[in-house]
Amino acid sequence: MLRRIFNVLILIPLAIVLIALTVANRTMVPLSIDVFNPGNPALTYEAPLFVWLFGALALGVVCGGVGTWLTQGKHRKQERTFKKEAQKLRYEVEETKRKSGQDKGTTGQSLVLQR
């Protein structure tokens, strides 16, 4: 149900706008990579304008995703550290219970972790 609402409210209008943009921008446009000699045919590529627009959009999405992933690296590292520490502490608690003879399998006690 939620997927259907997402499709109707976001994806269908987005598809309509992208199709309209594509149809409206079909003319061939040159893209020159050589900034000092723009007339150089070896470094000039021609494609419809919508190709350049969608390419720039895709490049922006990829660069933004990579930038976000790189800036969140410290948080992922901290989370890994916390998970390792929590797992170590769980094993220590279970080992202490096992040694003291308190692990009788009664309810309310922590789970025994399998290695």
TrEMBL record:
Record-linked InterPro entries: LapA_dom
GO cellular-component term (any): plasma membrane
Record domain Lipopolysaccharide assembly protein A: where: 45-93
Region Disordered: start-end pairs: 93-115
This protein's record includes keyword Transmembrane: yes
Keyword list, A-Z: Cell membrane, Membrane, Transmembrane, Transmembrane helix
Polar residues bias: start-end ranges: 103-115
TM helices/strands, residue ranges: 50-70
Biased composition regions of type Basic and acidic residues, renumbered to the chain: 93-102
Protein name: LapA family protein
Classification lineage: Bacteria, Pseudomonadati, Pseudomonadota, Alphaproteobacteria, Hyphomicrobiales
